[in-house]
Amino acid sequence: MTDISRRNLLGAGGLVLAGTSMISGRTQAAGLPEAPSMDKATTQPPLVPTTGVDYQPVVTLNGWTLPWRMRGDWKEFHLVAEPVVREMAPGMKAHLWGYNGQSPGPTIEAVEGDKVRIFVTNKLPEATAVHWHGQTLPNGMDGVAGLNQPGIPPGKTFVYEFILRRSGTFMYHPHSDEMVQMAMGMMGFFVVHPRDPAERRVDRDFVWLLNAYDIEAGSYVPKVNTMLDMNMWCFNSRVWPGIDPMVARQGDKVRMRFGNLTMTNHPIHVHGVDFKVTGTDGGWIPPERQWFEVSADVAVGQMRAIEFNADNLGDWAVHCHKSHHTMNAMGHSVRTYIGVNLKSTAKRIQKIAPGYMPMGSTGMGSMAEMEMPLPENTLPMMTGAGPFGSVEMGGMFTVLKVRPDVAPGDYRDPGWYQHPEGTLAYEWTGEPLPEPTRAPDTPKGRKARETDLRVVDPRKRRTASNPGGHGNH
């Protein structure tokens, strides 16, 4: 095979090349480009360009970049839509739909002005189509089944051809039975680099998609009709502690790009840095109009690019700031028992359910340390071991690791940060601290009583005989 950009990927492991069916579109190319398939859930090395315009390749979090070949002046890619098995974290796998062996599919990288030809082979049990989200292209290449093209029938291959009009951050996803196919994990990133290699150059460029699933405990297939009440909030169909860290050398200029294909917005918060928002769906933001943030909110169907200098050594959390989005599968109908003494209740329940343990009366943090039996293929709600114990997280959470001795192009996990002496929070063991200052109407020494936190049985709650207004609502 000639001019395949996969040279640097073959040594990374997990890459499999597979043939496909004949083309059922108008273009009869001189043989289909091979369709690589990835069977590893770890972050793969960037695909460094060996021909054509130079650029800093992206690193896809727990993913990889799709190799391509040159055929004349066309850059050719081959996507295969198919059922996949995705490990979401060690101990849980999901039966999804995706592209080339994974969900999300591989990242497509090209350069502004490139002519791209993308073959899409359908190995799903129903028709599909691919929409190139954010790209400016001919109407017949936009990928809306029934409106712009026929759906791609199972077993057939269609061809999309267009010129990349501008650089930026884009996505691809189905526009055919969209609710089901996207809920099953069909999506991917599409990065277009500037034609000028010096334009907007960074040292490290990370990309990931925000997606979500509703997968019941013990099951494998998402409930595709769920709209908002998801229980697995993901970076690239992975959840903490299965999301790899992002590694940077101290002083590197770092870019993070993320796109949202869930059904709600996500404020992405990066600890330890002051970043600028440098790109949106509409393209790059001129330097004089960029703004500083510590959290960047990304709405449904949007992309954001942020940039910062990795000057601050350490292990810095990166996560969605919606707290339920940093949990794994959780029972949303579980009642709150904070402040409730469950000892007597637990004894009675244990008579009919041996091994029952009451939870939640002092908060939920202790659950991260418990090793309770779980249904098959189910993750703990909060988990992930850090250097000081459980991180008590899940879902949309990972770590930015900044070190002084990382070589260019090295993305391997350097381990936990070793804090210099005098820079780590510690327990106070000196003289007893004075009584804290309290509000003027609080009696001195006043402490919370057990009755301050209590559950009231709604059947015994006293109500006004005629509340009026909205009292019964």
Automatic annotation (TrEMBL):
Chain ranges of the Plastocyanin-like domain: 88-196, 221-336
One Gene Ontology molecular-function label: copper ion binding
Keyword line: Cell cycle, Cell division, Copper, Metal-binding, Oxidoreductase
UniProt KW Membrane keyword: no
Keyword Chloroplast listed: no
Superkingdom assignment: Bacteria
Stretches the record annotates as Disordered: 30-49, 427-473
Listed SUPFAM superfamilies: Cupredoxins
Comp. bias regions, Basic and acidic residues: 441-458
Name used for this protein in its record: Cell division protein FtsP
Species this protein is from: Methylobacterium hispanicum
Origin organism lineage: Bacteria, Pseudomonadati, Pseudomonadota, Alphaproteobacteria, Hyphomicrobiales
